[in-house]
């Protein structure tokens, strides 16, 4: 059973990103503040859920969250500042985009983060399978990014992004070998 919070007396936002290991597209991040009595047993690390489950849970999270936001950092920015810094920047942008509540503490998935403003944070390795707000953020980041990749796949059908979402699959690499790269590819990544 995932925990709802680390500090019961604080407004906590869970943060996670999606798309770090992709060859193309932006990295997305989400910040989610859940009510303390939130209970949805299906919510877990987005990688452990099916597409259909993620889409259903996205609606639940967006409806019941106290506040939520999703942000992205483009492939051009990733090439300039590297993927780790881009992932952290995407989380900062998501936190910044929260409109209803200002978090008093941040729960960050993973082991690396740069402080955001004056808000204290706790990094939690595999946090998306331990804390509901991080799991919820992982679901929002993943579903919003998948939606974006499916949309741009219509412009560049030969990479099959509607299926691989920009990850380095055999078909994606074959598309690059045959057609070259698109404006969405990360040039600082090993593409072939």
UniProtKB/TrEMBL annotation:
Main location: cytoplasm
Source organism superkingdom: Bacteria
Keywords, alphabetical: Cytoplasm, Endonuclease, Hydrolase, Manganese, Metal-binding, Nuclease
Family: Belongs to the RNase HII family.
Cofactor binding description: Manganese or magnesium. Binds 1 divalent metal ion per monomer in the absence of substrate. May bind a second metal ion after substrate binding.
Cell compartments where the protein resides: Cytoplasm
Positions annotated to bind a divalent metal cation: 16-17, 109
Function: Endonuclease that specifically degrades the RNA of RNA-DNA hybrids.
Protein name: Ribonuclease HII
GO biological process per UniProt: DNA replication, removal of RNA primer; mismatch repair
Enzyme Commission code: 3.1.26.4
Enzymatic reactions: Endonucleolytic cleavage to 5'-phosphomonoester
One Pfam short name: RNase_HII
HAMAP family recorded: RNase_HII_B
Domain RNase H type-2, chain residue ranges per copy: 10-192
PANTHER family: RIBONUCLEASE H2 SUBUNIT A (PTHR10954), RIBONUCLEASE HII (PTHR10954:SF18)
Gene Ontology cellular component list: cytoplasm; ribonuclease H2 complex
Molecular functions (GO terms): manganese ion binding; RNA binding; RNA-DNA hybrid ribonuclease activity
Needed cofactors: Mg(2+); Mn(2+)
Source organism phylogeny: Bacteria, Pseudomonadati, Bacteroidota, Bacteroidia, Bacteroidales
